[in-house]
Amino acid sequence: MTPDRRIAVVIPSFRVREQILQVIAGVGPEVGWIYVVDDACPEQSGDWVRERCTDPRVIVVTHSHNQGVGGATLTGYRHAIASGANAVVKLDGDGQMDPALILRIAGPLLAGQADYAKGNRFHRLAFTRGMPWLRLVGNALLSFMTKLSSGYWQITDPTNGFTAIRRELLAELELERITRRYFFESDLLYHLNQLRAVVVDVPMQARYEGEPSSLRPLGMIGPFLRGHLHNTIRRVGYSYLLRGFSVASIELGLGALLLLTGTAFGLWQWMASSDSGVPATAGTVMLAALPIIVGVQMLLSWLNFDVAAEPRLPVHALLGDRQSSQGDNGAAERKTPAEAGVFQSPRKANSAVSVLQVLAQTLQCAELGDAHGQLGLGFLGAHLRILVGQDALGFFLDLADRGFVDVLRADRGVGQHGDDLRLHFQDPAGDGEVQVFAVSAGSPPPCPASGG
Known about the structure:
Helix content: 40-55%
Shape: elongated
Order of helices and strands: EHEHEHEHEHEHHEHHHHHHEEEEHEEE
């Protein structure tokens, strides 16, 4: 990897077999890693890429069942966390996003000006030419709902999937709590606001050339409304009650109470006047109108405060410093291997053998998610080899991200147990490499009777 290759790209793949190779070919040399996530594609687009793509940067990850565009993106994010990239770009595989814009999308992040960047197809009127009218109307409505639920009032085009995020933010986000279907981009904005991340729009022009879309706008109205309402309540409650109680909190609560009280009193008096045929007095009208007027003014004041409170200072540098500090001091705080099930400090290990011996004790025939961990251990020349399931691979990646082991590189191969992804780790003693093979196809070998 050259110093300029500080970008990783995640490409969710579902029913894009005809476009994905062209999309990959358009990714420039500024990208060091390309993660293609086959989301149980019926066209087997992952196998298609494996067979026909020779780009050494490409790593294909396959889901056993469909998880939606958000689920595929989150899987790519988890792999990209261990890549060492500064920015991770999400690029759709249908060809509607120009790979030549990757550096433009990631630019604000690499320059330290933002934590998250997204495309904006509405920056100029000319950008909307050729855009379906239903998409125009839908995005106008979704933009306002997203602003209210996320707290990012200056952004537009919230469902734009051409995004970039700092790796430090990915390590901090609770990825398992983010929605995995089409509400993914909007829900991610809500979670970013909870971290006080800076979000910016990057002008771009979408390409509509007849590519298929699995999005059904009418069927998404209900889920999107529920999602935005849920996030609005959570954001307001957390931001103005738990995290930052202020005058704005009083304005919001009292304003809403006055508005509802005045409206309810006015409707009650209107119905009573209609039934009796006697017009309401001026005093009765004022008793209804005054709370409504004051309530609206207080809510507008709160809204002005909320807009002004949008994050302005990027947090990835602060998170990176904290994560580095935790990594440096973590050895003293971690439990012993017997308590935690992992080695305490691999930097003190004598060789790769001792490292894998502890891993073997941890993983041997133990359930990790849906996969068995330790499946086989043996010598391969000067290297050591361990076969693990995909969930166990995530365990290794987590260890690498915490600084236990340094990842040198990743490549693919075909072994006796099927296609696999090979991760090469630096031996802590500095006298070799450790190869981790994640079997992605075929049957795993039988679990050995002992750790040796």
